[in-house]
């Protein structure tokens, strides 16, 4: 079973507003309300690719009910601990013309110690049936900064493949215990380096350091439509075309879902990269999050450009 962990899920409200700018009044040309948060998105995309999963984390209030219903409609197992308050709403404005995206996120409900303990108990129980654990997104208030580290250790002790997709101190803590795969937020890499990394060489030398912790695969974005993959077979730069792109919102999770499928199906390194890039690309071709079909993803795979750079 694949487990996705989202400690801070969200209801995503997307508004398409051509030529949006701060300070103006606009009418959205399109709106889209969806269940979100990184792990929730990954579970939804996995189901579009034909894989069932169990989604875990915390939910609260009406938004929490909405997310649970959306997941259940897709036959995704839900194992969330309920907390007081309201699961956050995140607002995104997509300007199709300027290709600019603006986001406003809430911090999420407070997680008391008792709820955390219940979650960890559930997590341990779910691990007995898991072969892959995805852990992603920001931490809600009250969650300790080393929680991802703890989740990776518990899964690794059972020989389960782990993927961490985060930023900031929670990612740093998790990297030290060597998750199998890490998606490293580009802005965070700049923060690690203390400067904005513009050259591919400096990016490679910095990310290569995470291999020292035992991370087998690491990936980070490079330029708008590219991704650098650090794999056991070398470093690759992968890119997809720009034509027809509507919104990159959620494309990161499509990339992650593709990677998980590639791993589970035992694809070779280059196919894992092509498949995950094609998932992200297909996701970016429409406003709705997720991929339209596996067939469409497979069609795009051939058009992903891939270069082995070291
Ligand atoms: O605040 P976080 O947890 O880092 O990111 C949350 C989020 O922006 O990530 C997804 C898109 O990547 C959205 O579904 C969700 O609103």
TrEMBL record:
Family membership noted in the UniProt record: Belongs to the carbohydrate kinase PfkB family.
GO CC terms of this entry: cytosol
Transmembrane segments annotated in the record for this chain: none
The name this protein goes by in its record: 1-phosphofructokinase
Stretches assigned to the Carbohydrate kinase PfkB domain: 25-280
CDD domains, sorted: FruK_PfkB_like (cd01164)
InterPro entries with a match to the protein in the record: PfkB_dom (IPR011611), Ribokinase-like (IPR029056), Tagatose/fructose_Pkinase (IPR017583)
Lineage: Bacteria, Thermotogati, Synergistota, Synergistia, Synergistales
One function term, GO molecular function aspect: phosphofructokinase activity
Superkingdom of source: Bacteria
Annotated organism of origin: Thermovirga lienii (strain ATCC BAA-1197 / DSM 17291 / Cas60314)
Record key words, sorted: ATP-binding, Kinase, Nucleotide-binding, Transferase
